Amino acid sequence: MKQQVTITVNGTTHTSEVEPRLLLVHYLRDVLDLTGTHVGCDTSQCGACTVQMNGDAVKSCTVLAVQADGAEITTIEGLAKDGELHPIQEGFWEMHGLQCGFCTPGMIMTSVNLLKNNPNPTEAEIRHGLEGNLCRCTGYQNIVKAIQYAADKMNAEPAAAGDD
Amino acid sequence: MAVSSPFGASIKRREDPRLITGAGHYTDDVRLPGMLSMAILRSPHAHARITNIDSSAAKAMPGVVAIYTGADLVDKVAPVPCAWQPKDSDVKVPEYRPLAVDTVRYVGDGVAAVVAEDMYTAQDAAAAIDVTYEALPAVVKQLDAMADGAPQLYDNVPNNIAFHFHLEGGEVDAAFKNADLTFKQRLINQRLIPNAMEPRGAVASYQRGSNELTLWCTTQNPHIVRLLMSLSTSIPESQIRVISQDIGGGFGCKIPMYAGEMIASVISKDLLRPIKWVEDRSENYVATTHGRDHVDDVEVAVMNDGRVVGLKVTAYANMGAYLSTAGPGVPTWLFTVTQSGAYDIPNVASDVYGILTNTMATDAYRGAGRPEATYLIERVMDLVAAKLKLDPTDVRRKNFIPSNAFPYSIASGAVAYDSGDYDKTLDRALEMVDYAALRKEQEEARANGRLFGVGFSTYIEVCGLAPSAAAGAMGFGGGLYENAVVRVHPTGKVTVLTGINPQGQGEGTTFAQLVSDEIGVAVEDVDVVWGDTDRIPMGWGTYGSRSTAVGGSALVFAARNVRDKMMKIGAHLLEVSPEEVVFERGDVHVNGAPDRVKTFGEIALAAYTAWNMPEGVTPGLEETYFFDPISNTFPFGAHICVVEIDKDSGKADVRRYVAVDDVGNVINPMIVDGQIHGGIAQGLAQAVLEYAAYDDNGQLLSGTMMDYAIPKASSFPDYELDRTVTPCPFNPMGLKGVGEAGTIASTPAIMNAIVDALSPYGVEHFDMPATPQRIWQFVHEQKGN
Lengths: 164, 785
Description:
The structure holds 2 protein chains of 2 kinds.
Chain A: E1 3-9, E2 12-18, H1 24-31, E3 50-53, E4 56-59, E5 72-74, H2 87-94, H3 104-117, H4 123-129, H5 141-156
Parallel strand pairs in A: 1-5
Antiparallel strand pairs in A: 1-2, 3-4, 3-5
Chain B: H1 16-19, E1 36-42, E2 48-54, H2 56-59, E3 64-69, H3 70-73, E4 103-104, E5 110-116, H4 119-128, E6 130-135, H5 142-145, E7 161-169, H6 172-178, E8 181-192, E9 201-207, E10 212-217, H7 222-232, E11 240-243, H8 259-271, E12 275-278, H9 281-287, E13 291-302, E14 308-320, H10 330-336, E15 348-356, H11 370-388, H12 392-399, E16 408-409, E17 416-417, H13 422-433, H14 435-447, E18 451-457, H15 468-473, E19 482-488, E20 494-498, H16 507-519, E21 526-529, H17 547-573, E22 581-584, E23 587-590, E24 593-598, H18 600-609, E25 622-627, E26 636-645, E27 652-662, H19 669-688, E28 720-723, H20 741-758, H21 772-784
Parallel strand pairs in B: 1-12, 10-11, 14-15, 20-21, 27-28
Antiparallel strand pairs in B: 1-5, 2-4, 2-6, 3-5, 7-15, 8-13, 9-10, 9-12, 13-14, 16-17, 18-26, 19-20, 19-25, 22-23, 23-24, 26-27
Helix pairs in contact in B: 10-11, 11-12, 11-20, 16-17, 17-18, 19-20
């Protein structure tokens, strides 16, 4: 009883037959082989699987692939454009915002939305905005700085923010 | 091209470009042709006899390839090994099978393994296996488990006591007799779940013909996995390749050898298909090792001036349902050797009981034994201050080992601290918080009825786990040296092979900095390789903050041998003697004549073409070095935590956190700060958030990330850091190690602050975890009185 879905991921449209119960994260990882999106829990707490769906950050472990039929998805693999890092990716690199890197794709995809909704967040707003993403390595201090770095850069060069 | 030395520079990490673009390669990202998925059916009972397993319905499901029970594996794989068995501790290692045979002993114990064409099918089939259990009484707390009449886990472990360890130095009884004051305190270190963000997993691929097993797995120590896998299966070590590259955090829980990778390996050999097993988070919570879980009874002998003259510790460590790979080493050696902390305590006796219970096994968790010891001694210092009405900083200074007393042998003589200047870090931390002003602020807050506390932790820790002779004496089933290969290629690019195995600590960058510092090659031309036993000589992995102090030292010595060879070849090409040349950032030139030079690239190429080598010098430019240090390193520091407790919510808010650490010389300050940040957060979380709670039947109540309180971005504020530098004399770079310092230091710092905040109620101690609920309850009980 597979169902056909057509999903555009990082600008490429894919049509696949999937089980109705297939999670979007497994569709991305196992059907499309986009392994940058990670699975860190089974209760939608950790946020490692966060991707953009139609411009919103979603936890792809909480979305069925069939629910994403017709949607536009951006994963961590699709964030850099023409080999140029997104300012948030750059911020994470510059400010040592990652250690093991496992939560990082989800952190970055959440941060894209955070800055889209609030281009000038305070430190408290950033910390609150990361409520749905867990990191065990960094203590979050440098993740906050990475996002501040990106906000500063995106505000200085508005063109760089035009990812969607 | 010669470049300036990068030692001490905050260079951006070389690991990051792949990790921030989704190009990391973790174990679950491995895909092989013909690969099958494996799911493990786990026991829902903490203690039960298996009376029947009916897998007929599961076997009949489309896509199911095979199902194995414990009985099916008895002849294929040995019990899960325990590789750290402290000598003279009468340790009894119970037989723990990768899949249970007859009896399950904790919720999460493996009962059957299902192999199917995909993961969803494997999980469906596991759920369709019908297991009949006869429930047995369970025991989950260590003090209950050792009491008469408690349920027994194993016939050959009477009273569930797996070992008793004793370490003593000085004249303890006399010290207690002659002391001005003695007192007792029970201190509890609750059980914790490590929560590396990447769950554990393995991909095993056994090749017919070559008879080789390739095993990708989430391990901090691939060579140990290879060794133990070989001993546990009939596969020779020479035919096992263990690969462990990007690892999503470890924190100790990826040290042990686990059932999952053993089962996947032998099933792959059986079916001749690659097998992938990746635990989900619920499985991780019940079946990946936990940490801490101590009940420590401490007795203290003290003089009226605050000098601690005697310490007696009786520790009850909950080992869980079996003895994990390094489990017994944690509450014994790693706990006892730092028990007297930064203080000159001449008389110390420690007794440790390792007790089996119907819970997941405990093993190393960031700090491993040292957080328990540091919590103990730092609480003791504050208890002394409270009882004698002294300032906690004065008590600490009174007891500090003076800076001229190093190397300093602890009372038992078991270890000698390398170097230290404990007053200096405390001075700096007090300056940063403006201690006098802080106490004044506290006075005003208290006058207004606010609960405001200041807490200290002037910790030490033992790092750079080594040397091998000490490892042997401690009953550690391996060596603790480390190796490095520096391979200069004909083009002048460099590959470094290292036996350490980082999980985010940044050695891909810092090790390149070390090589650049030694032989002048640019950092970006150095590729650091770890995590492949077929490429890398025997090494022991990353834990105990040993990677840089031990592995980095091996690397420096290997690089220096490369440099010596380059000088010989360079001198020969310049037609002078080796004594007449100097090595300067990669180039070899005639002393006093910098124009007469052979560049790094020219010498590298000459070493490989070997057209014109000096006499007695072999072709090639590659050196291997095995380094076994003569001692451990002992980082230290002073952390100060300022908290304010909200009486209405019970929440202890961290107002400020100041950390002054001394980890010796620093290769990359940005990375060291990052280690401290993450470490502090983990230690604070133990104090106020985290608790792995089992109910009396052995059900894990905090069994998901919804129920177990991992810190979030909003949990704690920014930390204010500084450093002093007291080099370690036992390694060439004078560095000590930093991976665990923050965690070790911060738990007692905040707990001392919380007790200080609550001290107007007349308390001298408050147990962890100091959650809002427990503090609120306490405060409101006081009001009721």
